[in-house]
Amino acid sequence: MISNQEFRKFIDDHTGIIIKVCRIYTDTEDDFKDCFQEVTLQLWKSHGSFKGEAKWSTWVYRVALNVCLLQLRSKKRRLKTEPIEQPAALNLHGGYTPVFEDAEERIKILYSAIKKLRETDRAIILLYLEEKSYKEIAEIMGLTVTNVGVKVSRIKNQLKNLLDGRL
């Protein structure tokens, strides 16, 4: 059994992972906080079931992704959603390429495009952007390494099309 202090350190060590996963699946600060809290709770409840067959970070990604996907699906069943307006940079015409003010604006636009992907594709591209190997992504997502490679390629094309204003 892990002590409260040890668990707090564990969460502190893995907060970055939890934040990234929760951000990609939430639209509001309240939803983010709820998601973060639920991931932390599930990590606490299930830490005893960690078998040590993968890295701790791989396990945290898996738990966080599962919690976020469950919450997202649950929310979709409860609420009727309204379409989100595309940022102006995603509504490109005539091959116009916007000039981004800074890297932060580019990241916001990328995250906006990622949020338009299917739920599992969001998880895969998030892990890819975190520079996880195809093997690690396969372990976290329960896929084959070959399937991850195919999916990453397709997701990149989808994002390119979204960012070029074609979808």
Structural features:
single chain; 167 residues; mainly alpha; Rna Polymerase Sigma Factor, Chain: A; Arc Repressor Mutant, subunit A; 67% helix
Task: Characterize the structure shown.
- By secondary structure, the protein is an all-alpha fold.
- The chain folds into 2 domains: 1-82, Rna Polymerase Sigma Factor, Chain: A (Orthogonal Bundle); 89-167, Winged helix-like DNA-binding domain superfamily/Winged helix DNA-binding domain (Arc Repressor Mutant, subunit A, Orthogonal Bundle).
- 67% of the residues lie in helices and 0% in strands.
- Helix 2 (29-46) crosses helix 3 (56-78) and helix 3 crosses helix 6.
- The protein is globular and about 50 Å long.
- The N and C termini lie far apart (49 Å).
Layout of SSEs?
Elements: H1 4-24, H2 29-46, H3 56-78, H4 103-114, H5 119-129, H6 134-141, H7 145-163
Helix pairs in contact: 1-2, 1-3, 2-3, 3-6, 5-7, 6-7
The biggest sheet, with number of strands, parallel, antiparallel or mixed sense and barrel status, is: none
Please report the number of helical segments.
Answer: 7
- Radius of gyration over alpha carbons? 17 Å
Distance between the termini: 49 Å
The CATH superfamily title of the largest domain: RNA polymerase sigma factor, region 2, helix turn helix motif
Number of domains: 2
Residue share in β-strands: under 5%
> Helices and strands, in N-to-C order?
HHHHHHH
Please state the structural category.
mainly alpha
Classified by CATH, the class of the largest domain is Mainly Alpha
Shape estimate: globular
Mean pLDDT: 82
- Work out the number of β strands: 0
